[in-house]
Amino acid sequence: LSEQPLIGIDIGGTKIAVAAITSSGRILGCAQAPVCEQSSLAAFNDTLITLVRRALAEGGLPGEKPAAIGIGCTGPVDPAQGTVSNPYTLPLPMDSDITTPLRKAFDAPVLLENDAFAAALGEAWLGAARGRELAVCVTFGTGIGCGVVRAGRLQHGARGHFPEIGHQILDPTGPPCYCGASGCWESLASGTAIGQAGQRAAQGPGGEALLALAGGRAEAVDARLVFQAARSGDPVACHIVERAVRATAAGVHNLVHAFAPDAIVLGGGMMCHYDLFEPAARAAIARITIVPVDGLLIAPAELGANAGLYGAARLAALSLGN
Ligand SMILES: [Zn+2]
Q: 42 CB contacts (<8 Å, ≥6 apart)?
């Protein structure tokens, strides 16, 4: 192997995953660590450097210099400054520089994007949206993130900002969201929203089955349990899931009208339940009359938990001009 490896780094709320990857998308070696172990920015950055070295060693390339390093990080991030401002999810202060130490340690370019954008780039490179002209990839997890990829390149807003399509308002009378709006997609269909609705329902009429699933502790109800209860036919859980499904169908309808894409990819941990979301999303697309939808792909993400890693590596590759 003569080419220098790319490094993809995926920083989420619970763990950091790193992979050494070839320019054709073959993973050579991986390493990961939990986020909670780090206690300061310096320790966090040391962990990133250590994980890159471990991924290279794992891939049989100890001491190799990476061609470039890409990071997909739970946002908000500032790609131009190489900083992240997410003290709620990461043990780091606002405006934490997580790129400069890596750049110095490996003498390689270091690129930063938010995690949903990185996952979208991964799906467009090697996953469900590969070969598509304009793909919108939505990631359903704790929140709802979204990335738009045109001809294999991420589309930002003005001045490099990230559009937040997960916060489009779908029901102005819906529940309040931390973003300041009410009834946005995330407040209706994210894992957090479904879990919170489940906790409320477990304490109300008809919530006995949900409550029992959670061992009698309403606060232990999460999205996973709500889906489990819904699949066994529990009406209260079905009602919560149906609300998320309706919101997602409306969200997909809006994405088609806003972007006229040729691919919409639904991913993230929650989309292990893609089968519950697909019929309503397809029905919403079938009703569209003023944007051509022939040839529009709607599909589940294919890369699973690795989408962000692949996307981060692709980000690194694109910075080199290939
Ligand atoms: Zn919101």
A: none
CA of 179 to the centre of ligand 1 (A): 4
Question: What average pLDDT does this structure show over 20-41?
Answer: 89
Structure tokens at 250: 């409306």
What's the CA-to-centroid distance between 174 and ligand 1, angstroms? 11
* Per-residue confidence (pLDDT) for residue 38, from 0 to 100: 59
Q: How far is the CA of 167 from the centre of ligand 1 (A)?
A: 4
Query: What is the distance in A from the centroid of ligand 1 to the CA of 191?
Result: 13
**Cα 102 to ligand 1 centroid, rounded to whole Å:** 33
In the predicted structure, residue 230 carries a pLDDT above the cut 70: yes
Phi and psi (nearest 5°) for 81?
-90, -15
Average pLDDT value for residue range 14-37: 92
- Mean pLDDT, to the nearest integer, of 113-136? 96
Give the Cβ contact number of residue 12 at 10 Å. Answer: 18
What is the band of 321 on the pLDDT scale with cuts at 50, 70, 90? confident
- Region 209-228: mean pLDDT is 96
Rounded to whole angstroms, the Cα distance separating 307 from 124 reads 10
Q: Does the structure show a pLDDT above 90 at 298?
A: yes
Beta bridge partners of 182: 176
Residue 117 corresponds to which tokens in the numbers above?
């954008």
Confidence of residue 284 (pLDDT cuts 50, 70, 90): very high
9 Cα–ligand 1 center, Å = 27
